[in-house]
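Dig into my protein:

:::
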Amino acid sequence: MPIPTLTHSSAPPPTWRIQLDVIDPNPHQPRRVIDEAALSELVASIGDHGLLQPITVRRVPGGRYQLIAGHRRLEAFRRLLAGGADAAPERFGTIPAHEKFDVTDEEMALFALIENLQRDDLSPLDAAVGLATFQEANGLSTEALVKRTGLELDRVKRLLRLAKTPKVIQDACHTGVMVDGPEASRRERVRLDLMAALEFARVHTHAAKTGPKKADERTAKAIERALAERWTFRRIQAYCRSALSGNATPAQNPAAPPDTAKAVQLYTDGVELRIRRARIEAAPIGERLALAELLKGLLAELAQ
Protein backbone atom coordinates (compact mmCIF):
# COMPACT_ATOMS: atom_id res chain seq x y z
CA MET A 1 0.00 0.00 0.00
CA PRO A 2 1.52 3.39 -0.96
CA ILE A 3 2.49 5.86 1.75
CA PRO A 4 -0.06 8.71 1.82
CA THR A 5 1.18 12.16 0.96
CA LEU A 6 1.87 14.61 3.76
CA THR A 7 -1.20 16.67 2.95
CA HIS A 8 -3.49 13.63 3.19
CA SER A 9 -5.65 13.63 6.33
CA SER A 10 -4.44 10.16 7.34
CA ALA A 11 -0.74 10.99 7.03
CA PRO A 12 1.40 11.53 10.13
CA PRO A 13 2.19 15.22 10.54
CA PRO A 14 5.66 16.23 9.38
CA THR A 15 8.14 17.20 12.09
CA TRP A 16 10.91 19.77 11.94
CA ARG A 17 12.52 22.38 14.13
CA ILE A 18 10.97 25.87 13.98
CA GLN A 19 12.39 29.14 15.27
CA LEU A 20 10.70 30.21 18.51
CA ASP A 21 10.32 33.79 17.30
CA VAL A 22 8.03 32.81 14.41
CA ILE A 23 5.57 30.89 16.61
CA ASP A 24 2.51 32.79 17.84
CA PRO A 25 0.31 31.62 20.73
CA ASN A 26 -2.97 29.83 20.15
CA PRO A 27 -5.64 32.58 20.23
CA HIS A 28 -8.09 30.04 21.63
CA GLN A 29 -5.85 28.90 24.52
CA PRO A 30 -8.11 28.37 27.57
CA ARG A 31 -5.26 28.22 30.10
CA ARG A 32 -4.61 31.52 31.85
CA VAL A 33 -2.51 30.26 34.77
CA ILE A 34 0.57 28.04 34.57
CA ASP A 35 1.65 26.12 37.66
CA GLU A 36 5.13 27.54 38.23
CA ALA A 37 6.37 24.53 40.18
CA ALA A 38 5.26 22.10 37.47
CA LEU A 39 6.71 24.33 34.76
CA SER A 40 10.05 24.49 36.57
CA GLU A 41 10.12 20.69 36.62
CA LEU A 42 9.39 20.61 32.89
CA VAL A 43 12.15 23.13 32.19
CA ALA A 44 14.63 21.00 34.16
CA SER A 45 13.50 17.81 32.41
CA ILE A 46 13.83 19.30 28.92
CA GLY A 47 17.19 20.82 29.82
CA ASP A 48 18.48 17.40 30.92
CA HIS A 49 16.79 15.03 28.50
CA GLY A 50 15.43 17.11 25.62
CA LEU A 51 11.85 17.35 24.37
CA LEU A 52 10.11 13.97 24.20
CA GLN A 53 6.93 15.16 22.45
CA PRO A 54 7.00 17.87 19.75
CA ILE A 55 4.54 20.74 19.85
CA THR A 56 1.84 21.01 17.16
CA VAL A 57 1.44 24.07 14.94
CA ARG A 58 -0.34 25.32 11.85
CA ARG A 59 1.10 27.63 9.21
CA VAL A 60 -0.39 31.13 8.87
CA PRO A 61 0.31 33.94 6.37
CA GLY A 62 3.54 35.89 6.64
CA GLY A 63 5.81 32.90 7.19
CA ARG A 64 4.60 32.41 10.75
CA TYR A 65 3.03 29.58 12.72
CA GLN A 66 0.29 29.39 15.33
CA LEU A 67 0.57 27.01 18.25
CA ILE A 68 -2.12 24.31 18.37
CA ALA A 69 -0.88 22.19 21.27
CA GLY A 70 2.15 22.43 23.55
CA HIS A 71 1.72 25.72 25.40
CA ARG A 72 3.82 24.63 28.41
CA ARG A 73 6.51 22.98 26.26
CA LEU A 74 6.94 26.14 24.19
CA GLU A 75 7.12 28.29 27.33
CA ALA A 76 9.77 25.94 28.75
CA PHE A 77 11.90 26.37 25.61
CA ARG A 78 11.55 30.16 25.82
CA ARG A 79 12.77 30.10 29.41
CA LEU A 80 15.68 27.82 28.58
CA LEU A 81 16.65 30.10 25.70
CA ALA A 82 16.52 33.11 28.00
CA GLY A 83 18.60 31.29 30.60
CA GLY A 84 21.86 32.30 28.95
CA ALA A 85 23.53 28.90 28.77
CA ASP A 86 26.37 28.65 26.25
CA ALA A 87 24.51 26.14 24.07
CA ALA A 88 21.07 27.69 24.56
CA PRO A 89 20.69 29.25 21.06
CA GLU A 90 21.67 26.01 19.35
CA ARG A 91 19.55 23.78 21.58
CA PHE A 92 16.61 25.98 22.43
CA GLY A 93 16.40 28.62 19.70
CA THR A 94 14.30 26.16 17.70
CA ILE A 95 11.76 23.60 18.86
CA PRO A 96 10.64 20.28 17.34
CA ALA A 97 7.14 20.73 15.93
CA HIS A 98 4.47 18.82 14.03
CA GLU A 99 2.67 20.83 11.36
CA LYS A 100 -1.00 20.07 10.80
CA PHE A 101 -2.60 21.09 7.51
CA ASP A 102 -6.01 22.62 6.81
CA VAL A 103 -6.80 23.27 10.46
CA THR A 104 -9.82 25.56 10.90
CA ASP A 105 -10.28 28.06 13.73
CA GLU A 106 -12.95 25.79 15.22
CA GLU A 107 -10.54 22.85 15.22
CA MET A 108 -7.83 25.04 16.75
CA ALA A 109 -10.14 25.89 19.63
CA LEU A 110 -11.20 22.26 20.04
CA PHE A 111 -7.61 20.94 20.01
CA ALA A 112 -6.52 23.45 22.65
CA LEU A 113 -9.59 22.83 24.79
CA ILE A 114 -9.34 19.04 24.79
CA GLU A 115 -5.59 19.00 25.36
CA ASN A 116 -5.98 21.16 28.44
CA LEU A 117 -9.10 19.43 29.76
CA GLN A 118 -7.17 16.16 29.77
CA ARG A 119 -4.59 17.63 32.14
CA ASP A 120 -5.12 17.64 35.90
CA ASP A 121 -3.46 21.04 36.42
CA LEU A 122 -5.97 23.06 34.39
CA SER A 123 -7.96 25.26 36.78
CA PRO A 124 -11.72 24.58 36.85
CA LEU A 125 -12.41 28.19 35.88
CA ASP A 126 -10.17 28.04 32.81
CA ALA A 127 -11.86 24.77 31.83
CA ALA A 128 -15.31 26.27 32.38
CA VAL A 129 -14.67 29.49 30.44
CA GLY A 130 -12.96 27.60 27.60
CA LEU A 131 -15.86 25.16 27.33
CA ALA A 132 -18.52 27.88 27.43
CA THR A 133 -16.65 29.99 24.86
CA PHE A 134 -16.36 27.03 22.49
CA GLN A 135 -20.04 26.20 22.93
CA GLU A 136 -21.16 29.77 22.21
CA ALA A 137 -18.80 30.25 19.26
CA ASN A 138 -20.10 27.12 17.55
CA GLY A 139 -23.74 27.27 18.61
CA LEU A 140 -23.68 23.85 20.27
CA SER A 141 -26.22 22.33 22.63
CA THR A 142 -24.94 20.73 25.82
CA GLU A 143 -25.39 17.28 24.29
CA ALA A 144 -23.49 18.28 21.14
CA LEU A 145 -20.72 19.75 23.29
CA VAL A 146 -20.41 16.43 25.11
CA LYS A 147 -20.00 14.60 21.80
CA ARG A 148 -17.40 17.06 20.46
CA THR A 149 -15.25 17.01 23.59
CA GLY A 150 -15.75 13.44 24.75
CA LEU A 151 -16.37 14.61 28.31
CA GLU A 152 -18.97 13.19 30.67
CA LEU A 153 -22.33 14.96 30.62
CA ASP A 154 -22.29 15.74 34.36
CA ARG A 155 -18.84 17.32 34.15
CA VAL A 156 -19.86 19.47 31.19
CA LYS A 157 -22.98 20.68 33.00
CA ARG A 158 -21.01 21.56 36.12
CA LEU A 159 -18.35 23.45 34.18
CA LEU A 160 -20.97 25.40 32.24
CA ARG A 161 -22.63 26.32 35.54
CA LEU A 162 -19.29 27.54 36.89
CA ALA A 163 -18.79 29.73 33.81
CA LYS A 164 -21.99 31.58 34.73
CA THR A 165 -21.24 32.09 38.42
CA PRO A 166 -20.71 35.59 39.89
CA LYS A 167 -17.28 37.22 39.87
CA VAL A 168 -16.72 36.57 43.58
CA ILE A 169 -16.95 32.82 42.95
CA GLN A 170 -14.75 32.94 39.85
CA ASP A 171 -12.12 35.02 41.64
CA ALA A 172 -11.93 32.37 44.35
CA CYS A 173 -11.27 29.74 41.66
CA HIS A 174 -8.79 31.86 39.72
CA THR A 175 -6.95 33.87 42.40
CA GLY A 176 -7.88 32.21 45.69
CA VAL A 177 -6.26 33.37 48.92
CA MET A 178 -2.80 33.19 50.48
CA VAL A 179 -2.71 30.95 53.54
CA ASP A 180 -0.09 29.49 55.86
CA GLY A 181 1.60 26.44 54.38
CA PRO A 182 2.71 23.22 56.11
CA GLU A 183 5.81 25.11 57.26
CA ALA A 184 5.04 28.13 59.43
CA SER A 185 7.52 30.29 57.52
CA ARG A 186 5.91 29.64 54.14
CA ARG A 187 2.65 30.77 52.63
CA GLU A 188 0.85 29.30 49.63
CA ARG A 189 -2.11 30.13 47.44
CA VAL A 190 -5.24 28.02 47.81
CA ARG A 191 -8.06 28.13 45.29
CA LEU A 192 -11.64 26.92 45.29
CA ASP A 193 -12.27 23.70 43.38
CA LEU A 194 -15.21 23.03 41.08
CA MET A 195 -17.62 21.28 43.46
CA ALA A 196 -16.99 23.70 46.32
CA ALA A 197 -17.46 26.66 43.97
CA LEU A 198 -20.87 25.38 42.91
CA GLU A 199 -21.91 24.99 46.57
CA PHE A 200 -20.98 28.61 47.31
CA ALA A 201 -22.75 29.70 44.13
CA ARG A 202 -25.99 28.39 45.62
CA VAL A 203 -25.37 30.46 48.75
CA HIS A 204 -24.69 33.55 46.64
CA THR A 205 -27.93 33.08 44.69
CA HIS A 206 -29.85 32.75 47.94
CA ALA A 207 -28.21 35.81 49.50
CA ALA A 208 -28.75 37.86 46.30
CA LYS A 209 -32.47 37.92 47.05
CA THR A 210 -31.73 40.62 49.62
CA GLY A 211 -29.20 42.48 47.44
CA PRO A 212 -26.21 41.73 45.16
CA LYS A 213 -23.72 43.67 47.29
CA LYS A 214 -24.67 41.80 50.44
CA ALA A 215 -24.44 38.53 48.55
CA ASP A 216 -20.91 39.32 47.34
CA GLU A 217 -19.70 40.35 50.79
CA ARG A 218 -21.25 37.40 52.60
CA THR A 219 -20.03 34.85 50.06
CA ALA A 220 -16.52 36.32 49.89
CA LYS A 221 -16.12 36.14 53.70
CA ALA A 222 -17.33 32.55 53.80
CA ILE A 223 -15.04 31.49 50.96
CA GLU A 224 -12.04 33.25 52.48
CA ARG A 225 -12.53 31.46 55.77
CA ALA A 226 -13.17 28.10 54.08
CA LEU A 227 -9.92 28.36 52.12
CA ALA A 228 -7.88 29.76 55.01
CA GLU A 229 -9.02 26.98 57.32
CA ARG A 230 -8.89 24.37 54.56
CA TRP A 231 -12.43 23.16 55.02
CA THR A 232 -13.23 19.76 53.59
CA PHE A 233 -15.96 19.51 50.97
CA ARG A 234 -18.31 17.98 53.55
CA ARG A 235 -17.73 20.92 55.84
CA ILE A 236 -18.42 23.35 52.99
CA GLN A 237 -21.62 21.45 52.20
CA ALA A 238 -22.70 21.67 55.84
CA TYR A 239 -22.08 25.42 55.93
CA CYS A 240 -23.91 26.03 52.66
CA ARG A 241 -26.93 23.99 53.72
CA SER A 242 -27.07 25.95 56.93
CA ALA A 243 -26.74 29.24 55.03
CA LEU A 244 -29.57 28.29 52.68
CA SER A 245 -31.79 27.64 55.68
CA GLY A 246 -30.86 31.04 57.09
CA ASN A 247 -28.95 29.66 60.09
CA ALA A 248 -25.32 30.40 59.12
CA THR A 249 -23.07 33.42 58.95
CA PRO A 250 -19.40 33.50 57.84
CA ALA A 251 -18.41 33.74 61.52
CA GLN A 252 -20.06 30.44 62.39
CA ASN A 253 -18.13 27.19 62.52
CA PRO A 254 -20.22 24.73 60.52
CA ALA A 255 -18.46 21.82 62.18
CA ALA A 256 -19.77 22.91 65.57
CA PRO A 257 -23.58 22.78 65.78
CA PRO A 258 -25.43 25.32 67.94
CA ASP A 259 -25.76 24.54 71.62
CA THR A 260 -29.45 23.75 71.19
CA ALA A 261 -28.61 21.16 68.57
CA LYS A 262 -25.96 19.60 70.80
CA ALA A 263 -28.53 19.19 73.55
CA VAL A 264 -30.88 17.22 71.34
CA GLN A 265 -30.66 13.49 72.03
CA LEU A 266 -30.69 12.00 68.55
CA TYR A 267 -30.69 8.36 69.57
CA THR A 268 -30.04 6.09 72.50
CA ASP A 269 -29.58 2.73 70.75
CA GLY A 270 -30.02 1.01 67.41
CA VAL A 271 -33.79 0.91 67.67
CA GLU A 272 -34.01 4.65 68.26
CA LEU A 273 -31.68 5.29 65.32
CA ARG A 274 -33.99 3.34 63.01
CA ILE A 275 -36.96 5.36 64.20
CA ARG A 276 -35.16 8.65 63.57
CA ARG A 277 -33.95 7.64 60.14
CA ALA A 278 -37.25 8.53 58.46
CA ARG A 279 -37.11 12.03 59.97
CA ILE A 280 -33.56 13.02 58.98
CA GLU A 281 -34.44 14.93 55.80
CA ALA A 282 -37.13 16.96 57.58
CA ALA A 283 -34.99 17.63 60.67
CA PRO A 284 -33.49 21.13 61.29
CA ILE A 285 -29.95 21.67 60.01
CA GLY A 286 -28.54 21.83 63.53
CA GLU A 287 -30.01 18.47 64.42
CA ARG A 288 -28.66 16.88 61.25
CA LEU A 289 -25.18 18.25 61.89
CA ALA A 290 -25.26 16.93 65.43
CA LEU A 291 -26.32 13.52 64.13
CA ALA A 292 -23.45 13.56 61.64
CA GLU A 293 -20.93 14.23 64.42
CA LEU A 294 -22.34 11.40 66.54
CA LEU A 295 -22.20 9.01 63.61
CA LYS A 296 -18.56 9.91 63.01
CA GLY A 297 -17.74 9.00 66.59
CA LEU A 298 -19.68 5.74 66.31
CA LEU A 299 -17.90 4.77 63.08
CA ALA A 300 -14.53 5.57 64.65
CA GLU A 301 -15.31 3.23 67.56
CA LEU A 302 -16.40 0.45 65.20
CA ALA A 303 -13.17 0.80 63.18
CA GLN A 304 -10.97 0.15 66.24
